[in-house]
Amino acid sequence: MTAQPTDNMRAIVEAFRVYVEDSTAGDDRYGPPSRCDRPDGSMLASRFDVGEGWCLEVAILPAASAVRVGFATGDPAKAEELRECVEESGLTPSQFVEMGFREAGLGWSEPPVEQAQDGDGSRCFAVSFTLEDLGDLDLSDVRDKTVRMLEGLLIAFGPSVVIEETDEEDEVDD
User: Rounded to the nearest 5°, which phi and psi values hold at 41?
Assistant: First the structure.
């Protein structure tokens, strides 16, 4: 049985979420954050639209004392484009994400990339890291790492969004 979170722990989690959400404010590449928490509290997620049908997500997984940052789409056609983008790079998903992380200032050699594809065709590439406990969300290095992961995934996967939107605009202009 999981203990109920204390008021102090809830405040730390909320402050972390606000910090991450505020970190994207004023950056046109990120849409406004939306909270997509599971009703049972097993996942507390902030999502940022980064293109038509694409989003970045920062999720806190309280039971696992973990943070997961992912790049996802719910559109099966876009999911296939995302898979092909990684495949055509000639890199493993870990190497692909590592390049984006490196450019975002995060030195993480071959981060463990989780790939999830649901039956509805959605796809997500995500990287998680564990904490000693949820109180670590209050640490500046944890906050910095999370924001750099968010930026790194946008750097890694963002060009597929930008290229797609640019192609669509070109078609309209022709």
Answer: 80, 10
Over residues 29-54, the pLDDT tens digits come to 999 999 999 999 899 999 999 988 89
DSSP annotation string for 46-99: EEEEEETTEEEEEEEEGGGTEEEEEEEES-HHHHHHHHHHHHHHTS-HHHHHHH
CA distance 83 to 113: 13
* 3-class secondary structure, 123: strand
pLDDT tens digits, one per residue of 67-99: 999 998 888 888 888 888 889 999 999 999 999
Question: Does residue 1 form part of some domain?
Answer: no
CATH code of residue 40: 3.30.1460
Cα(68)–Cα(57) distance, integer angstroms? 8
pTM of the model: 0.86
The answer to whether residue 174 is domain-embedded is: no
Domain carrying residue 66: 7-169
Asked whether residue 142 is assigned to any structural domain, the reply reads yes
